[in-house]
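Case study.
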Amino acid sequence: MSAPHDPQPWPLLSSRQGPDLVICRARFDRLRNPRTGAAFDRLVLEAPDWVNVIAVTPEREVVLVKQYRFGTGAVALEIPGGVLDPGEDSRAAAERELREESGFTAQRWRYLGSVQANPAFLTNTCHHWLAEDARRTESELALDEGEDIAVELVPAADLPAYVADGRIAHSLVVAALARWIDLRA
Amino acid sequence: MSAPHDPQPWPLLSSRQGPDLVICRARFDRLRNPRTGAAFDRLVLEAPDWVNVIAVTPEREVVLVKQYRFGTGAVALEIPGGVLDPGEDSRAAAERELREESGFTAQRWRYLGSVQANPAFLTNTCHHWLAEDARRTESELALDEGEDIAVELVPAADLPAYVADGRIAHSLVVAALARWIDLRA
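After joint prediction, the assembly is written out as follows.
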């Protein structure tokens, strides 16, 4: 094993804008590897921050949303979440996404932490919020034409089994739930 | 609240290839929302499956790798992982990535499950493996010119604190660790 060293930031040599991918923008950075001196082009996808919300009812049920997902081409079960609007803070986005996607609102909010979506090529962070005493207060979901969502309530105690058997499989949902419950099968 | 319904798959109307982004390929699918009848273009990034590995030494230390990440523009602390080669199964990829990135190998392997990277726009799955009795058996890391990695051993018992304070922040690392330890702060 060669002598341990501390990996350093790679100097940025140049950057060129790539295609607009609607939900993110591609950028190609040219960087120098400080270990080898060689230069490389690396993809970066610039995306706004995301948020997701664990909303728990007084009966200890968690609010899940079911929708068709285009990446996997399948209906998925997730906690509510979405993209921060420009200038919006993550708490406001969490309240909005919960209300719009599920019709639920809550009085008690607690920040659970955040993860980097994928530091290898995505620039953004996903914030996790816990909403307690969540209740259905809206008579209709606020879905736009491009959404089709159904709400499903699942006992909190059942969630580890949902993760273990893949009924809940979204990495960012698992990362959020891990801040709040023990997910070991 | 309108009558509950079960979200259905969206019929695919057409699909066009987008730019090659090196680590994935963009595709634009045109789909019809079965709820509203309206048609939408949606981004899909086609990517090969990924794997990551929790490797634990006989002293209950976990093998972490430190490297500069281009998406976030910062040095990150993660478990070893990477992309499956064509035709490679996830166990073989886990063994290879662990060996190449850290110089460690292990005899005892256990599959911990998987997550979908991001079902909203990514097609792929990340597989999680646990490698027990991991030992440093390689005298050199097998890094290519485009990598710069340092190995760091951290007591397993300290990992929840690393996640809580953001020293470990990669969503897929958190998702893997949650299968093996209780991450609640």
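Observations recorded in class. Chain A is about 15% helix and 40% strand. The mean pLDDT of chain A is 94. We will return to this complex in the next lecture.
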